[in-house]
Structures are given as C-alpha cells and as structure tokens.
C-alpha cells in the first residue's frame, strides 16, 4: 500500500517542479515556459527602470506648487513682455502665466531653470528662484528678457551675456 501510493504521488510532485524549481539550463524545461519566464523578468526590469526614471523627475528642484509668486507674460500692442519686471521674488517659488496668444518658454540666462513651453492661457511649472535674484529670457523669442530682484527688495544681479 505504501509503495503504491508513493508511486502515484511522485509524478504529481515532479510536474510542479517543471514550472517552479528547475533551472533554465536543464533540458526538461519546455520552450514556451522558458520564454514566458524570461519575458516576465524582462518586463519587471523595464518597470524598475521606469520607476527609477520617475524618481529622478520628481526629485528635480522644479515642481508644481500652488503658493508660488506669479509673473504674467503679457502682450501689449504686439510687444511681448513680463509683468512685473523686475519681479521682487528672489528666494521664492515662481510661475509664469501666459496671457499671450502664443507659446513662450522661460529659461534662466545661466541655464539654472527652464519652464518648457508654456501654451497660451497656461501656467508654467513652479521654479525655485535664487535669493540674490536672476536674469531670464524667452528661448522662443530671445528679445523677451526679464529679471528677478533679490530678496529684501534688492536689485537684480547685473545682466551679462546675449540676453540683456
Ligand atoms: Cu516668448
């Protein structure tokens, strides 16, 4: 009796080991099973890479926030400009709100921030501004230039370079 029940149990046990226990190098593992296992571990790898990339983005110093100072992009008789300018918001977070009919992209003259394209009627991501203030421009319309005053009502830093 004991011997007989063992011989029935053994094949069942072996079947489980095919899918779960055998190493890929062992010949008993069937092709489709191997492909499935490799595919799923590849997918897990890509998911990890995607998560790591998302983590990098969220740790960026520029992130959306609701209590940022607003600088408006205005168009007066075709002239594209900023208001206020200079803006006395050094050391604060700021967003640019586009009241113009075309896209603008705000970039620090020293390259320390870049809002990406701001569509008409849209508001940019929030940018952390240095306490000493900074100079910026629109990368789409290089004649659009602006400045951020230093904290405590100080003047913006002297503007140097092609966007002044
Ligand atoms: Cu522009």
Overview of this protein structure:
With 164 residues, this protein is an alpha+beta fold. It has two domains: 2-58, no CATH class; 69-153, Immunoglobulin-like (Sandwich), CATH 2.60.40.420. The protein is built from two helices and eight strands. It has helices spanning 2-20, 31-58, and strands at residues 69-76, 79-83, 93-98, 104-108, 114-118, 127-128, 134-138, 145-148. Strands 2-1-3-6 form a four-stranded mixed β-sheet, with no helix packed on it. A four-stranded antiparallel β-sheet has the order 5-4-7-8, with no helix packed on it. The protein is globular and about 35 Å long. It starts with a helix and ends in a 16-residue tail after the last strand. Residues 80, 104, 138, 140-141, 144 line the site of copper (II) ion.
Quickly list its features.
164 residues, alpha+beta, Immunoglobulin-like, 2 domains, four-stranded mixed sheet, four-stranded antiparallel sheet, 2 helices, 8 strands, globular, binds copper (II) ion
Determine the CATH superfamily of the largest domain. Cupredoxins -  blue copper proteins
- Total beta strand runs: 8
Low-confidence stretches: 5-63
| Average of the residue pLDDT scores | 72
What ligand species are in this complex? copper (II) ion
CATH architecture of the largest domain: Sandwich
Strand content: 15-25%
Determine the N-to-C terminus distance: 96 Å
**Shape designation:** globular
CATH class of the largest domain, anyone?
Mainly Beta
Number of domains: 2
- The side-by-side strand order for the widest beta sheet comes to 2-1-3-6
Structural class: alpha+beta
Largest sheet: 4 strands, mixed
């Amino acid at each position: 009796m004991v011997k007989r029940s063992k011989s029935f149990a053994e094949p069942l046990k072996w079947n489980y080991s095919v899918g779960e226990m055998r190493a890929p190098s062992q010949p008993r593992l069937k092709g489709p099973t191997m492909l499935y296992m490799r595919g799923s571990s590849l997918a897990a790898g890509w998911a990890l890479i995607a998560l790591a990339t998302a983590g990098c983005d969220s740790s960026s110093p520029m992130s959306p926030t609701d209590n940022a100072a607003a600088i408006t992009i205005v168009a007066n008789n075709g002239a594209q400009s900023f208001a206020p300018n200079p803006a006395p918001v050094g050391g604060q977070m700021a967003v640019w709100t586009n009241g113009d009919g075309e896209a603008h992209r705000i970039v620090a003259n020293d390259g320390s921030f870049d809002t990406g394209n701001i569509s008409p009627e849209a508001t940019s991501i929030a940018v952390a501004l240095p306490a000493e203030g900074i100079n910026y421009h629109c990368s789409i319309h290089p004649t659009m230039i602006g400045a951020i005053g230093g904290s405590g009502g100080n003047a913006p830093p002297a503007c140097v370079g092609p966007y002044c």
